[in-house]
Structure to design on (370 residues):
């Protein structure tokens, strides 16, 4: 079986959706061709049977300037679908013609034209994975709705997406799915934990860092010995830098930028808590990594890990800095609760083992092929 995966990011960066693609390719012993839009044309190999191809694309821009609509979701995607993905589609056709995939897995739903092309010319099965907070924008576009119906199977990371997806697809095509965690990389190290909290994620609007920083300022009033580390980068970096330089936070919050997986594992093991203040999410991979490292967490209810999140930490509503601060303080001060959450992490992490999830996805491909 030959599998083509269209990713939104370079899997070598081990960030965002690219990380899911990386771990999938790692555990599947089949020829895999990964295509993603970027700034240059190049290719490289991952292992023995996986080729990664970057396709240079102009005007591939996601504008994260915040704009909230009635649903509370804020984003603006520019330019239009065809302008955004048209050149990516045209430049990727020769790659598909050379590879002739049996399955095309679109982890970038906007690149649906590649799936339709493969379906028509190579009789490929088309699979789409929806992740992140922008599903409503897709549903509102009649053009995208019409094209996306070509999918043979549809995976989604969050149960909140299901009602929206039912406006496009029959229920028989929808399958809940989510990211996993590599337990060979993320695991307890047995090191001493420091007086620090850790947040991981892109500096983008939907991560809700403003609420986290306000909450941490409250926490510092009773726990001034703590620091907050943020591992990630993004378009809101300047805004975050300005906020953490203000009185009450100056010198207590440190931006670490993007970090490799091994360093993230080390940071998680050194931290008392993992904190996530997102106002929109799928299933955050960073939260799963924290669980795998045995680090209790405080997250918002949009982090769709179900009851598992409450076994390994505390869950609060989004956009509520006071509730976030109170939850952090409770876990810092109640060591019995902290210890129980840390022990539960070992059990919960097994549910998200990449080896198990990848095997399930591969079986799904085989079922599609008949």
């Amino acid at each position: 079986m030959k599998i083509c995966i269209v990713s939104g990011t370079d899997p070598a960066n081990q960030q965002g959706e690219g990380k899911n693609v990386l771990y999938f390719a790692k555990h599947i012993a089949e020829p895999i061709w990964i295509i993603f839009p970027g700034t240059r044309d190049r290719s490289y190999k991952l292992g023995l049977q996986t080729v990664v191809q970057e396709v240079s694309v102009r005007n591939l821009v996601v504008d994260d300037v915040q704009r909230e609509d009635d649903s509370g979701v804020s984003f603006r995607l520019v330019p239009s679908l065809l302008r955004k993905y048209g050149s990516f589609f045209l430049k990727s056709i020769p790659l598909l013609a050379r590879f002739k995939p049996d399955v095309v897995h679109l982890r970038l739903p906007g690149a649906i034209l590649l799936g339709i092309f493969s379906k028509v010319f190579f009789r490929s099965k088309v699979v789409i994975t929806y992740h992140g907070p922008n599903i409503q924008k897709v549903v509102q576009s009649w053009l995208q709705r019409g094209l996306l119906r070509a999918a043979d199977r549809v995976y989604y990371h969050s149960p909140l997406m299901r009602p929206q997806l039912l406006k496009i697809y029959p229920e028989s095509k929808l399958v809940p799915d989510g990211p996993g965690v590599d337990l060979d990389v993320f695991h307890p190290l047995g090191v001493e934990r420091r007086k620090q909290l850790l947040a991981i994620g892109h500096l983008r609007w939907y991560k809700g860092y403003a609420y986290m920083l306000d909450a941490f300022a409250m926490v510092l009033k009773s726990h001034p010995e703590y620091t907050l580390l943020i591992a990630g980068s993004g378009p809101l970096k300047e805004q975050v830098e300005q906020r953490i330089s203000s009185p009450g936070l100056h010198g207590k919050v440190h931006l670490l930028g993007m970090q490799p997986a091994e360093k993230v594992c080390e940071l998680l093991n050194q931290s008392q808590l993992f904190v996530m203040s997102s106002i929109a999410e799928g299933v955050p991979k960073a939260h799963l990594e924290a669980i795998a490292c045995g680090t209790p967490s405080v997250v918002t209810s949009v982090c769709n890990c179900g009851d598992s999140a409450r076994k390994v930490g505390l869950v609060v509503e989004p956009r509520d800095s006071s509730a976030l601060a109170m939850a952090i303080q409770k876990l810092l001060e109640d060591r019995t609760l902290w210890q129980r959450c840390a022990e539960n992490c070992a059990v919960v992490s097994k549910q998200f083992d990449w080896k198990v999830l990848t095997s399930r996805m591969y079986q799904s491909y085989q079922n599609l092929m008949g």
